[in-house]
Specification:
Elements: H1 3-25, H2 28-35, H3 39-46, H4 49-73, H5 80-92, H6 95-106, H7 114-132, H8 136-154, H9 166-178
Length: about 180
């Protein structure tokens, strides 16, 4: 296996570990165990747990941007936001990705992590505007709805394996009936 392939293997293990335990509670030796490498090798590849976490966050944000860009290519030019909504559903279907995103928001108080997380979120916002031509207000609504759905998915009250919750059913029904 090349160093690049091994790095991807470590990053995949890191996304899984950070999704499960968050930034603070995840240990690099656990990531190493999951990747089948030594802990010093993880540090040699990424330099620190913080840089590995930022690489995991970047991978998650890259996936969101990829989902949105792919959706926009085949989108109905009259309603590109709907195509992006469907694309975001694909993101929400991957529990690990959404959990890493939520952990990134939680870790944003860290002076090294916060600027990166804020920049990536801003980049997603700008990409939505660029792909759809939507107004600031429409983008705000889209992002607000996306965050609501992210939280609902994390709480497991939305999606195919949803735990029943009347309040969640009410919110989800309203989203379907009234749009974003």
């Amino acid at each position: 296996m090349t160093a690049e392939e091994r790095g991807e293997q470590v990053l995949t293990a890191a996304v899984s570990a950070f999704a499960e335990s968050g930034y603070v509670a995840t240990r690099t030796d656990e990531i190493a165990r999951r990747a089948g490498v030594s802990q010093p090798y993880v540090i040699r590849l990424f330099g620190s747990k913080q840089r590995l976490f930022l690489a995991a966050v970047a991978q998650v944000c890259d996936r969101i941007e990829q989902f949105f860009t792919e959706a926009a290519v085949g989108a109905d030019t009259n309603d590109p936001m709907s195509a992006l909504s469907v694309a975001y559903d694909r993101f929400l279907a991957n529990r690990e990705l959404l959990q890493v995103l939520l952990h990134a928001f939680a870790a944003a108080a860290d002076p090294e992590i916060g600027p990166v997380v804020r920049e990536r979120y801003g980049r997603i916002y700008r990409l939505i505007r660029e792909l759809t031509g939507a107004s600031v207000t429409d983008c705000r609504r889209f992002l607000a709805t996306g965050m609501l759905l992210t939280v609902m998915a994390a709480l497991q009250v939305a999606g195919p394996d949803a735990v029943p919750a009347d309040w969640a059913d009410e919110l989800f029904t309203d989203l379907i009936e009234n749009g974003t």
